[in-house]
Amino acid sequence: MAPTVDDLRNEIRESVGRYTRVESTGFTKEALAAICGALGYDVQKGSLPSKAVMRAEIRVRVGLADDADPDSAGGAFRKADLEAIAEALRD
Predict the structure, then answer these.
(1) Domain encompassing residue 34
(2) How many CB atoms lie within 10 A of CB 70?
(3) H/E element holding 9?
């Protein structure tokens, strides 16, 4: 059986040292920052970039987008995005 969106989110959280969640929720800014760090994007300490900026940069880092423009990158991650992120973090 294919993993659900919640399964993929929790796999990603675990792979970057965050805790899993029982309920279905999107990523917090801190979780997105941890994912960015794991993918080689240095998130400044202190004030974190917006969620849109971090999601756009993650999409570029895993090959889902050509540029990190938060306005054209889209909103929350879809299942295909989560699958690509989880795969990149497994490597």
Answers:
(1) 5-18+30-90
(2) 17
(3) helix 5-15
Per-chain mean pLDDT for the chain: 90
| 3-state SS class at 76 | coil
- What the block records as the tokens of 4 is 């659900």
User: Does a structural domain hold residue 25?
Assistant: no
- The distance of Cα 35 from the centroid of its chain, to the nearest Å, equals 5
pLDDT score for 47 = 87
Domain assignment of residue 24, yes or no: no
Rounded to an integer, what distance in angstroms lies between the CA atom of residue 34 and that of residue 39? Answer: 9
Per-residue pLDDT, 74: 76
**For residue 15, with 0-12 CB atoms within 10 Å meaning exposed, 13-18 middle and 19 or more buried, which class applies?**
middle
Number of domains the chain is built from: 1
